[in-house]
Amino acid sequence: MQLVATLDDYGKPAWIIAMILGFIVWWPIGLGVLAYLIWSGRMGCGNKLQWKQHFMQEARRFGGGFSPLRSTGNAAFDEYREETLRRLEEEAQEFQTFMERLRKARDKAEFDQFMADRGQSGPRPVPSGA
Predict the structure, then answer these.
(1) What distance in Å separates the CA atoms of residue 35 and residue 41, rounded to the nearest whole number?
(2) Predicted local distance difference test score (pLDDT) of residue 54
(3) What residues make up the domain containing 54?
(4) Is residue 9 part of a domain?
(5) Pair (34, 20) in one structural domain
(6) Residue 124: which residues within 8 A CB-CB, separation 6 or more?
(7) Is 50 inside any structural domain?
(8) Which of 30, 50, 87, 124 is the most buried (most CB within 10 A)?
(9) Are the C-beta atoms of residues 4 and 39 closer than 8 Å to each other?
(10) In Å, what is the CA distance from 85 to each residue of 49, 72, 96?
(11) Consecutive 10-residue runs of the chain (130 residues): their mean pLDDT?
């Protein structure tokens, strides 16, 4: 897990280099890294959930084509479907908010740990030019 955290710190270029090196060393390693990048969403073009919500909103707005939101002719079912989709969108938004709070809490804990470790090693000298 330390390797994953290190590569995450360096960002997408590090993951791409790791994937290329994996292909060079032994192709199944590169393929495994590629599968992991796709599965974990590390190489996505943003938040998958937000993209899905945007797609659903656009489908509702245009209401044509292959949209699952087109009326079935059964008013009770259409009402149930709309209510279920609305509830799912709310739950997805609540989950995104929860995940953001978790990320912020993790960042704060890591920073607090850094400050605590730094405090144990004593104060750092201030450069004389400052």
Answers:
(1) 10
(2) 64
(3) 46-121
(4) yes
(5) yes
(6) 118
(7) yes
(8) 30
(9) no
(10) 14, 15, 16
(11) 74 80 84 79 60 64 57 87 92 94 94 89 64
